[in-house]
Write a structure and sequence with these properties.
About 30% of the residues lie in helices and about 20% in strands. With about 425 residues, it is an alpha/beta fold. Helix 1 crosses helix 12 and helix 14 crosses helix 15. The structure holds flavin-adenine dinucleotide.
């Protein structure tokens, strides 16, 4: 019997479990740990609440989750409740699928001003991640700035621009919907250091901005490269650029909310009130120009009004004691997923924050190949029995997949009209719904 511990129940964790079942069948026991009492990582707390068809991917993990030799061990944080060394004592192989949950910080003056957030925190807030339920962003001002030119920036701009009716069928949490209902925002500016040909935005997400109820996307035609240059792009990027060209050609409308694309714009400083500690009021931006595909400053500065700033400039894996870490890359130090003998990583914890949910599937299968190469003979460890003994001795109470089912049912039962669920936003509420106390 091979005892496998997977740390993290996001896509990378579940695809690794699926691959392990395919390879070893009944000859493997898989425990999937998560620090949250609920599974599925960013599918639950990252993917936009108005993109329910994508969130539905989690249903594909059900067969794996319910296999008799796979167990969800929720509310156990590795590095806090149990160490890597302890897990390695108990399991033949430990796979870190912990994602990249921390924001890359915006290293410019003023980034500690009020109403400035990283995207992990802001997205976690509207998606009901308990760590960010108390964020309390203020929407009393007129202008928001989102820094970054990827799909996360688009998600955030769209959520800020939508009217409440456009969240029908979405599982945006009540505290976020209420706050957005009272929002006084009339514009979002999306800042990108480089130009339209360098965006990391996909056509579907860009196209959505063109059909919002009260908001209109705006692109300065002067920022677009000559159309002939689009021919060199891959088909997906070409479609994305076509959307930007359409936004640039669009005639002004009476829609009261604008989503401005500000390309060739590098954030230089955030400006607040002079007393310090106050809220952000504007962002100073340096105009850039591309040199060999890289953005260089031109020395021309201007200000964009900003009552709310959200930086969506990437994520970092959280270090865990005893695990070698690549500080520059912001993820575990690894060679094709191998960290140390018996210790592996997969998904965003291995590659950094790029790719779609599906990108993590081949990653999961590849890591199981590595484990199979390293463990040709069945192991001799205690696995889950050993974990249970340690958890009991330590007073660590954990949540099972059956407990999650109860939380799931309770969330669905308390959904507002038209919504698929109303998430619990505190661990205590989740545990109560699971009948844990
Ligand atoms: C805002 C946002 C929107 C996105 N939208 C889409 C989309 O629409 N479509 C798409 O295809 N992709 C989307 N993605 C990308 C997709 O979510 C990722 O590719 C995927 O979730 C990465 O999977 P993962 O398993 O590596 O990490 P995660 O999904 O982050 O899972 C990591 C898990 O590990 C747990 N964990 C972390 N540390 C510990 C610890 N110490 N102990 C125990 N557990 C721990 C976490 O609680 C979490 O459950 C989006 C990403 C973001 C950030």
């Amino acid at each position: 019997m091979l005892h496998l511990a997977i740390i993290g129940s996001g896509p990378a964790g579940y695809y690794t479990a699926e691959a392990a079942l395919k390879r070893w069948g009944e000859e493997v026991h898989v425990d999937i740990f998560d620090l949250q009492p609920v599974p599925f990582g960013l599918i639950r707390s990252g993917v936009a609440p108005d993109h329910q068809s994508i969130k539905g991917v989690a249903k594909r993990y059900d067969a794996v989750a319910q296999a008799p030799n796979v167990r969800f061990v929720g509310k156990v944080a590795v590095g806090r409740d149990i160490s890597i060394a302890e897990l390695q004592e108990l399991y033949d192989a430990v796979v870190l699928a912990t994602g990249a949950p921390s924001d890359r910080t915006l290293e410019i003056p003023g980034s500690d001003l009020g109403n400035v957030f990283g995207s992990a925190a802001f997205v976690g807030w509207y998606n009901g991640h308990p760590h960010f339920a108390d964020l309390a962003p203020d929407f009393a001002g007129g202008h928001a700035v989102v820094i970054g030119n990827g799909n996360v920036a688009l998600d955030i701009a769209r959520i800020l621009a939508k009217v409440p009716q456009e969240f029908e069928g979405a599982d945006i949490v009540a505290h976020a919907l209420d706050a957005l209902r009272a929002s006084k925002l009339t514009s979002v500016t999306i800042l990108g250091r480089r130009g339209p040909h360098q965006i990391a935005m996909t056509p579907k997400e860009l196209g959505e901005l063109g059909s919002l109820e009260r908001a209109r996307p705006r692109v300065d035609p002067a920022d677009l490269p000559p159309e002939a240059e689009d021919a060199a792009l891959d088909p997906g990027m070409r479609k994305s650029i076509q959307h930007l060209r359409a936004f640039a050609a669009d005639t002004p409308s009476d829609k009261p909310f604008t989503i401005n694309f500000d390309f060739f714009a590098a954030p230089h400083a955030l400006i607040g009130d002079d007393n310090g500690g106050g809220a952000v009021q504007a962002i100073e931006v340096e105009r850039t120009a591309l040199v060999d595909g890289r953005a260089g400053g031109t020395g021309e500065f201007y200000q964009v009004p900003a009552d709310l700033v959200i930086s969506a400039i990437g994520y970092r894996t959280n270090p865990i004691e005893g695990v070698p870490y690549d500080t520059a890359a912001g993820r575990f130090a690894n060679e094709e997923g191998r960290i140390l003998p018996g210790l592996y990583c997969v998904g965003w914890a291995r590659r950094g924050p790029s790719g779609t949910i599906g990108t993590n599937r081949p990653d999961g299968f590849a890591i199981v190949d590595r484990i199979a190469e390293d463990f040709p003979a069945p192991g001799n460890k205690r696995g889950r029995a050993g974990f249970e003994a340690l958890a009991a001795a330590r007073g660590v109470d954990f949540v099972t997949f059956r407990d999650w089912r109860k939380i799931d049912e309770a969330e669905v039962a308390r959904a507002r009209d038209g919504a698929p669920r109303e998430k619990f936003v505190a661990f205590d509420q989740m545990l109560a719904a699971a009948g844990k106390h």
